[in-house]
Amino acid sequence: MIPRGELVPAGIVGLLGTQGPTSRTEIARTLKLSPATVTQATKDLIARGLIEELESVPSNGGRPARLLGLLNDAGVAMGAKVTADHVAVVTVELDGTVRSSTSHDYDPGAPDAINRLGQILAKEVGELDDRLLGVGIGVPGSVDSQASGVVDAPTLSWQGAQVGPVLRAAIGTPVLVDNDVNTLAAAERLYGIGRDHSSYLVVTIGRGIGCGIVVDGGIYRGANGGAGEIGHIPVGLSGAEEPPCTCGSTGCLEANIGSAGLQRTARARGVIGRRGTLTTLSRAAANGDDAAQQIFEEAGGMLGRALAGVIHTVDPEVVVLMGEGVDGWEFWQTGFEPSFRRSLLPARKAVPVVVEPWTEDQWARGAASLVLSSPFDSANNGGEQSRLVRARLGAG
């Protein structure tokens, strides 16, 4: 988080919102600003009625440090996670607290799907009583940039979908769009692992296998916004015997160990019936079914080997595992841990892997984090949309 120029005031307001009352010294340290810059910026923000001085706290020698806090409600962000059958929408405060959560049935394959998404969000925005800073959208696919928001998402049947332009016209607020796993990485940057680590991976297991890559404090998106698609790493020999993937190829990691792949394997082995689901398989594993547990163990081993290759490529400080699949992580772990560690170079064998508890609204909360990250967008990933969010945040 290194704001520069016009990002400084919004960065300070955003930091106080995400971390709560903070001293000037801590603001300077966290945002990597000079004490003089922080002093001048906070003086202006106090004069404008955006922040105030609070109580003093002990310091390491010298005068006690004065804490600064937000004077008024700085606003909220809205986040929407788009899936193959519904849209989850949340309203999030600056400190990451989810204030409200709703879900809407949705058909992304309909001819008017993007306009329908605009109608859903316009209704949500119209019912909002708080001052809205902007709307973040998370999608399971590649996004050319957060600012423009043109989406390629095979699982949604979207190619070149003009999500950003259509939604901005429908809602009338700043809109930022990104891959859904990248949005989780953005949330970690504000509220989780990213506070203590500048380079990390967020890996999700569930319907698909995804990865958000953070390097030097910024999300790495690649040349076309498609970085992190580790679910499409080929893990077997190409051929008809390999399971088909939604991307059009065969033998991808996701095709083998995503939820559909696990179900396919379980049915082929007779562990679950023709109508059985991943829930059926998970229940069998929890009840001690050796064959069900073996399927998860094999999936964990395959994930461990693939992830080791990513570790060697990116060299992160830590890996965060998230997603619907972590509810059954105890069964994945028996295969993952030995496979992962065995596949790593000696210097990488101790890389920490943190498994975070999962709730459904984390996807949409991650999308809202695209908006809440705007004060710290020194790489200008959000372009004009981030600038508009900062203007709203700085206006008080």
TrEMBL record:
Xref: Pfam families: MarR_2, ROK
Residue ranges of domain HTH marR-type in the record: 11-55
SUPFAM superfamilies, A to Z: Actin-like ATPase domain, Winged helix' DNA-binding domain
Organism superkingdom: Bacteria
InterPro entries: ATPase_NBD, HTH_MarR-typ, ROK, ROK_cs, WH-like_DNA-bd_sf, WH_DNA-bd_sf
Recorded family membership: Belongs to the ROK (NagC/XylR) family.
Name this polypeptide is given: ROK family transcriptional regulator
Taxon lineage: Bacteria, Bacillati, Actinomycetota, Actinomycetes, Propionibacteriales
